[in-house]
Amino acid sequence: MDRDQITSERPDSPFKTSGVDHITVWGSNKQDTIEFYRDLLGMPLVLRQPNLDDPSQTHLFFDTGDGRILTFFVSDDRQSVSGQRTQTGGVHHLAFKLDSDQFRKAMKALEDDGRGYNMFDRGIFHSLYTHDNNGLVIELSADKYDFPDDRKAEVLAKTQHIREEEGADYAESKHMKKALEELGIDYTENDLPDAEAGAGF
After folding, report:
1. Architecture of domain 22-83+91-143 in CATH?
2. Which residues contact 87 (CB under 8 A, 6 or more apart)?
3. Least enclosed by CB within 10 Å: which of 117, 140, 142, 167?
4. How many helices and strands in the chain, by DSSP H and E?
5. Of 153, 148, 155, whose CA–CA distance to 176 is shortest?
6. Of the candidates 79, 80, 123, 96, the residue with the CA atom closest to the CA atom of residue 42
7. What is the mean pLDDT of the chain?
8. What is the pTM of this model?
9. Phi first, then psi: what are they for 4, rounded to 5°?
10. Residue 12 has what DSSP assignment?
11. In sequence order, which residues have a C-beta less than 8 Å from that of residue 149 and are 6 or more positions away?
């Protein structure tokens, strides 16, 4: 297999992961982190305990909406920050899925909370970008098409092949729609607001 070959097939590797269990972030303090992730984004706080590697810190566990967990190491002596510079190995951004009917509600909630955001049409999905209390870029993403999650890798790989055949610079809505049709997958097209196709956040 070519090093950068696009395929939904599992590679011939010594073992295989079965999904994301959790992601852990160095956070600021408990109050600001809970206010952003639970009170604004609607993620239940499902577990709170000491950081087992450093009991002076608290370990917060949030359910992102599908049972996959996002956790934070927080300490009340750390202040929230407005931005971060990341280097190789650092986190560029965290992306969370929104149902399409929640997209406009998210825009309003961010505005009501006094948070700026940018909205872009990313070709095969729509995204809102804002910052959390730790200075991390947060993406809230809604798919243009609803189809079974267990077919996502297959659809993305097919979309890539169609994009390459057409010589397009990036995956567009029409490429994914064609992929879904060629794979014979039932889908629903979502109603999302008009947005610029662009780069940046």
Report:
1. Roll (3.10)
2. none
3. 167
4. 4, 10
5. 155
6. 96
7. 91
8. 0.86
9. -110, 25
10. -
11. none
